[in-house]
Amino acid sequence: MTVNALHIFDRKGKTLFTKRYIPNKQQPVQDAEQLSEQRKLIFGMLFSLRELVGSITPEGASPALHLVKTGAGTLHCYETISGLRIAMFTNNNPVMNTIGARGGGENAKTSFQTALKHIYSEIWVECVVRSPLYRPEDIQVEPLEGSESNAGRFDIKSTNFEAKLNAYLTSMPWFR
Q1: How far is Cα 80 from Cα 22, in angstroms, rounded to an integer?
Q2: 68-91 average pLDDT score
Q3: Is residue 63 within 8 Å of 57, Cβ to Cβ?
Q4: What is the predicted pLDDT for the residue at 117?
Q5: End-to-end CA distance of the chain
Q6: With contact defined as beta carbons under 8 Å apart, do 43 and 13 qualify?
Q7: What pLDDT does residue 13 have?
Q8: What pLDDT digit, counting tens, does each position of 94-125 carry?
Q9: Average pLDDT over residues 66-72
Q10: What's the CA gap between 45 and 13, in Å, rounded?
Q11: Using 50, 70 and 90 to split pLDDT, how confident is the model at 148?
Q12: Per-residue confidence at 83, pLDDT binned at 50, 70, 90?
């Protein structure tokens, strides 16, 4: 299974973090435009499908959207109670890996869902949320050079989130 990209969005659709694992052979300007467009499309699709799932879910059951499989790849999703959405885009390898699932059977989750939950609870919370500089409304996604309006804003790159994320993902047997 090849991981192409990982995106983290807040509840309003703001991109908090993006990491691409497959290098793109385009010019840097075209690549930035394509990545920006990709983030908008992914969040829009997640939002729309989440609304659809919520409208067709029986009364009393909690709506959940765990993955979306397309011809191009699979988008694995994890949404927290606070509205944070983590999306990992992988290729369409037919092997469903259940490493990390306990007990098997109906309660077994794929390792992707377990991995996304681990990324949130063990890496995001530890490195970003528990940072003394963290304020949810002041997350800076990409610093603008020469811009003084970014002073005092929290930059995720100032934490060790990306290093821990990379170490965790590369340790997974399905990561290539």
Answers
A1: 26
A2: 88
A3: yes
A4: 94
A5: 6
A6: yes
A7: 84
A8: 554 444 444 444 333 457 889 999 999 999 99
A9: 85
A10: 11
A11: very low
A12: confident
List the one residue out of 70, 64, 71 whose CA is nearest residue 49: 64
| Identity of the amino acid at 96 | M
Tell me how crowded residue 86 is: count the other CB atoms within 10 A of its CB: 21
Tell me 58's DSSP state.
P
Please give the helix or strand (H or E) that residue 165 lies within, else none.
helix 161-171
| Alpha carbon separation from 157 to 5, 32, 106, 139, 160 (Å, rounded) | 17, 18, 39, 10, 7
- Which residues, in sequence order, are CB contacts of 97 under 8 Å at separation 6+? 1, 110, 111, 112, 173, 174
Dihedral sign of CA atoms 122, 126, 130, 134 in order: negative
| Token pair in block for residue 63 | 């709506």
User: For residues 64 and 27, what is the distance between their CA atoms, to the nearest angstrom?
Assistant: 38
Contact 161, 124 (CB under 8 A): yes
Residue 42 dihedral angles phi and psi, to the nearest 5°:
-65, -45
> 7 exposed, middle or buried (CB, 10 Å; 0-12, 13-18, 19+)?
buried
pTM of this structure: 0.75
The rounded radius of gyration (Å) of the Cα atoms in the chain is 17
